[in-house]
Amino acid sequence: MSRRIKSLQLRLTIELAALFLIASCLAVGGLIYSASLTAGSLADRELGLRAEDLARHVSLDQTGTPRLELPPDLRDAYNAAAQQSVFAIRDKEGHLVEASTPEFGAMIGRWPTADTEPSYFQLSRFGPSGRDYSGISVRLDSAAGTLSVLVAQVAGGDQLVHSILREFVFDIAWYVPPFVAVALLLATYSVRRSLRPLRSVSAQASDIGPGSISIRLPEADVPTEALPLVVAVNRALDRLEQGFTIQRRFTANAAHELRTPLTIITARLDSLEGNGQLSALKEEVTRMNRLVEQLLCVARLDSVALDVSSPVDLRGIAQEVIGSMAHLALAAGRTIALIGADHPVVITGNAAAIGDALRNLVENALAHTAPGSEVIVEVGRDGAISVQDSGPGIPVEDRPRIFDRFWRGKGVRTEGAGLGLAIVMEIVRAHGAAIAVSDHAPSGARFELRFRPA
Amino acid sequence: MRLLVIEDEDRLSGILRSKLGDAGFAVDIAGSAADAEAALELINYDVAVLDLGLPDGDGLGVLATLRRLGRTLPILILTARDAVEDRVGGLNAGADDYLTKPFAMTELIARIKALLRRPGGALGITLDAGNVRLDTVGRELTVAETPVNLSRREFAILEQMMRRFGRIVPKAVLEEKLYGIDEEPDSNPIPVHVHHLRRQLQTANASLAIHTIRGVGYILTENKE
Q: How many Å separate Cα A374 from the centre of its chain?
């Protein structure tokens, strides 16, 4: 059972229920047993009383012989119950004084006379009815001296025991199921109550995410049995956080160590006067700057999970990105426009990351769009943002691979290292957003990011 | 124009000194937060360029100290860190602009000039770009030494564009500046004023061009001849 049932609460409840059931069965069985014992001794006592009753009516007649003189009502009663109960009376010497049936009298004639202690006997298949009898043999004093009185009653025909049992079952035993039910309810409630701290701990655990790695589970109210688990989880979280911090610090340091020399190289080259080779070198450094930037971005996305839980205005991001890139576009003889929603479009995400993704898409579009043309960014009220250029477009067969790292189109003049779209993809994934690539008329590529509405 | 560069990397600060010197600034270098605070106490700089990674403390600490002391000089933050959080933190702590390494020197100079062209900045009164000069106090525009008459709105728009020369002027900023410029009811939207302004500049043979970035704003650049 315990292997199949995973719920601790259910298991405890079921096991407690089984326990209650067994305990109450034992209790009821015990009660029935002791009731039947009591009933048996009551029956013995009744036989004893009857024997005394009979002895009281034995007296000596004129000849000095003991004789039973029953009052008429008692005689009628014995006659009526002749099949139910039998008796026999013997005198001191063992001579039969009286017997309810001659058969019984003949049978006991062979038995020894009664001792001082009453003795019990069983008769099986006795008499014309062929029934079983149980009886008592006692020595009693009477007006006719010492007598042995034997009284027997049909076994099993004992109405008293049966009525006591019936009364018990109907009057007392029905208490047992409701009692078990109430006890079970109380047990279930107390199990639930004891498990409550565990539930609150798991609620807190489910809040732990990449953006909130410093949360620890509370150890205060946790039951002692579960405490080692909670403590172990907290220790594991400590180690994870440490790992995260090291990774984060590493990317930050790498960024610092790479960027400062790059700035210096860029500035030094700027101040040199020279020929065509120098401008080729400058271009190469520009490319390198961009590559380092993108590599750092990839490293950051790999090592630090994005916190995508803040409200973000897509239109505001688009305005900022376009604003920061417009002068570069103009310098390259292209322009950018923002169309679509004229009110803020709010979704849940990470503004900086979405800005990075959009910047990469716009950079791509500016690199591929025809000179003098316009790159169009559109923000839809439904949480979609698209970038469209008037370049050659993207061949259908290339589309599944353009988001791979370091992928570059064949025969396409390329500035970048093929990381831009991979970065876009990472950011899209982190947001649970969708990305679609399509053509648009008359020519050009269109990338659409579709975010889930806030 | 006196400028303080707070940068601990010697090679970089050397280049900054020579490049910014070429651009017409008098440059002082501070290699630590302590040096920077001492220098800022002695001299009234027109602008400070602040690297966030300093040996004896965070650049943001220097920034916070300055702002607490009520010093309002424009401050441009340089950082090699990735952190977008740095940027938000820096701007919240009172930085005026923000540039990530690696940067082009021309970009840095353009940003510094934009800071100086702000109202109250060292270059904030008379704005120069190409052959255009705008006297923001005397409210006079001259193109190649010849005065040109502008309406108040056109003047306000051009002033915003000259202050942010070469950079985007968001439409929202223009709307804000024009709102309540005077009480007279004005039915003309901003594009109409920009259109008039553009024509006036053309007529006067200004060497500047106003570019429209649809849906975002305008950029004033020098004509490429």
A: 58
